From TrEMBL:
Entry annotated with the keyword Magnesium: no
Coiled coil (residue ranges): none
InterPro entries: ClpP/crotonase-like_dom_sf, Enoyl-CoA_hydra/iso, Enoyl-CoA_Hydratase/Isomerase
Descriptive protein name: Enoyl-CoA hydratase/isomerase family protein
SUPFAM superfamilies: ClpP/crotonase
UniProt key word Isomerase: yes
Assigned protein family: Belongs to the enoyl-CoA hydratase/isomerase family.
Keywords (A to Z) from UniProt: Isomerase
PANTHER family the record matches: ENOYL-COA HYDRATASE, POLYKETIDE BIOSYNTHESIS ENOYL-COA HYDRATASE PKSH-RELATED
One Pfam family of this chain: ECH_1
Species whose genome carries this gene: Winogradskyella ouciana
């Protein structure tokens, strides 16, 4: 696999939405936009009762936003658009009336942790360590922070945000509420995801829709909040500190 993509397959009323990018599933703006739209469309598709969010590849679920795009930001407006990419996906997941199961097969960083936290039920392998690395380059996990805090609590979110150099093991993430189960292999994970998703399809769709509203109660202002957070990140990425840091990564 060398070309980025977003694809959806439907099996037994379950939509499997998969994204991929050859750079460790780090996502550029066009892939994020397509992912947000695919999730929104699945939410209105009567053939679908449950959604599974997954990524291609073996050992990385998502390495966050595209670094190549990040280093080319030269003005605040472009910065806001760039950081709005994950905001739009998170909001699409939040507004989707169907349960979204996360299938996290490997490491996840930055925006990827935000995606995992925005699923309604998240399952992982023992390889799915997590990290918020944004402070390393002079910004912060502003856009994904609300989703992570909602799922894991302020204490856990602040811990991994401050300790920006460390990967935290999936068992830690499970204890903090991000993952529901951790499996020894991708094969075991896939079997469990399939079983869980198809079992959920036997439930009343209206009941699941109403439960989803309850799960996400209190996030009604996130369209505005995440846009403001994207603006903050877009401003900070133009700072001399961050520009100098980014030069060391080129």
């Amino acid at each position: 696999m060398t070309k980025p993509y977003v694809k959806q397959t439907i099996e037994n009323e379950v939509a499997y939405i998969e994204f991929f990018h050859p750079a460790h599933n780090s996502l550029p703006g066009d892939v994020l936009a397509e992912l947000a739209q695919t999730i929104a469309d699945a939410g209105t598709n009567d053939e679908i009762k449950v959604i599974v969010l997954k990524s291609g590849g073996d050992r990385t679920f998502c390495a966050g936003a595209s670094f190549k795009e990040l280093i080319n930001i030269n003005d605040a407006a472009t910065g806001k658009v760039f950081f709005s990419g994950f905001a739009n996906v998170i909001n699409a997941m939040r507004k989707c009336p169907k349960f979204i199961i996360g299938r996290i097969q490997g490491k996840t960083v930055g925006g990827g942790v935000g995606l995992a936290a925005s699923t309604d039920y998240c399952m992982a392998t023992k390889f799915a360590a997590i990290k918020l690395s944004e402070l390393n380059i002079g910004i912060g996990p502003f856009v994904v922070g609300p989703a992570i805090e909602r799922k894991m609590g302020l204490s856990a979110m602040s811990q991994i945000a401050i300790d920006a150099n460390s990967f935290y093991p999936p068992e830690w993430a499970k204890r903090k509420g991000l993952f529901t189960q951790v499996y020894d292999s991708t094969e075991e994970l896939d079997e469990a995801v399939k079983t869980t998703a198809e079992h959920l399809c036997t439930y009343n769709p209206e009941a699941m829709k109403e439960m989803k509203k309850i799960f996400w109660k209190g996030t009604e202002d996130w369209d505005k909040l995440l846009a403001e957070r994207a603006e903050t990140s877009g401003r900070l990425v133009l700072s001399e500190f961050t520009k100098e840091k980014l030069k060391t990564y080129k």
